[in-house]
Amino acid sequence: MQAVILAGGLGTRLAEETSSRPKPMVEIGGKPILWHIMKIYSAFGINEFIICLGYKGYLVKEYFANYFLHMSDVTLDMKKNSMTVHQNYAEPWSVTLVDTGENTMTGGRLRRVKDYLGTDDFCLTYGDGVADINIPELLKTHQESKRLATVTATQPPGRFGAIEFDGNYVKAFKEKPKGDGSWINGGFFVLSHRVIDYIEDDATLWEQKPMHELANNNQMSVYFHEGFWQPMDTLRDKYLLEELWQSGQAPWKIWE
Q1: This model's pTM is above 0.85
Q2: pLDDT tens for residues 149-182?
Q3: Shortest CA distance to 189 belongs to which of 152, 231, 226?
Q4: Cα separation of 26 and 43, whole Å?
Q5: Residue 43: is it exposed, middle or buried by C-beta count within 10 angstroms (0-12/13-18/19+)?
Q6: What DSSP string describes 155-199?
Q7: Taking a C-beta distance cutoff of 8 angstroms, is the pair 63, 30 a contact?
Q8: How far is 229 from 156, CA to CA, in rounded Å?
Q9: How far apart are the C-alpha atoms of 76 and 98, rounded to whole Å?
């Protein structure tokens, strides 16, 4: 199965990090968050990726072109102009990097990679969020629904602690409970290649007309993810993910 990753946005709310690189290349634990997302899929045997590039996409191309060197120990003999690789392991990935335009919207990016998609269902996600999502269960939900699309619903983490009180007296504090109970788009989709027909052009936002039409046509099912989910929208989010990774308690690290 293929996984399409949308990795072309500007990431304006993370401008401190994205002025010099695309948002998916912002690092958590010394690795781009894009790498973390791919490792999640790879843990379940999905190793064929199509990455939709836009803003500073050449940096993503350079990263994967040099991935073998990034992951290996090497000795450079400057006198002999030679290189010895001491570790030859790399991921079992096939990575197709597609320039989908710097100003193209999310739906337009998906439409631009249609020629690289097969006729089977495929996964789609954004290049800036991680979760301890069970991909096989997501796929099972999609297959059993017999719909063209399946969206993962999740409850966003709370931003602030809550206070329980009785009259004028505090009873307890709750540390950052989940949001108001609403379920939101968690960004992990399974789609039929036929959803491309719902996308008009580069200006189409996947989250608007295509998703609304699929829902109105009873062609979108939902998978409820109750575990960890965290986007990297702001510098605060980035610091949270880094802290979890450095503590050895990153819930999305489901690989060995």
Answers
A1: yes
A2: 999 999 887 765 666 777 777 777 766 666 666 8
A3: 152
A4: 21
A5: middle
A6: PPPPSS-EEEEETTEEEEEESS---SS--EEEEEEEE-GGGGGG-
A7: no
A8: 7
A9: 32
